[in-house]
Amino acid sequence: MARYQHSSDQKGRIFIPAKLREEIGSAVYVTRALDKGFLACYTEERFADIRRQIDELPGTDPMARRLRRAIIGEASRCQLDSQGRISINDELWSTIGVRPGETVYLIDMGESLEICGKTFFDEMEAGQTPITDLDLSEYHVTGIL
Questions:
Q1: Which residues contact 75 (CB under 8 A, 6 or more apart)?
Q2: In this predicted model, what pLDDT tens digit does every residue of 10-58 receive, in sequence order?
Q3: 3-state helix vs strand vs coil in the chain, percent to 5
Q4: For 131, which DSSP code?
Q5: From CA 64, how far away is CA 55, in angstroms rounded?
Q6: How many C-beta neighbours within 10 Å does residue 117 have?
């Protein structure tokens, strides 16, 4: 897991590092993430599982419909090209405020990738309390130094 920095090109394409391409396969689904300023990138298998779970939510529930629209309705299947790039549509880029040519971060989250603008991420990080100053005891995660 790591954070990678790349620039989007004028066609909305970004390069996926070779290490990540091995893990994600030949195509991914890119959609809105739950956090503002981020896109989520899922393998086809992972996205199918997420879609199945969302499809099982009651259609009469307004929150479930909103989630379905945001995650499923905004999703775009992106095929990796021969140079290891994916093309993300303008609508998804605009949801996170990234314009062609801007630098983005790809953050390997294990079962997914997060994509965000470098400027957004750097400003967000600068405005947050350092993780060393947070009380994380309620999460009961052991082994973190």
A1: 29, 30, 31, 47
A2: 999 999 998 888 888 899 999 999 999 999 999 999 999 999 999 999 9
A3: 35, 25, 40
A4: G
A5: 9
A6: 22
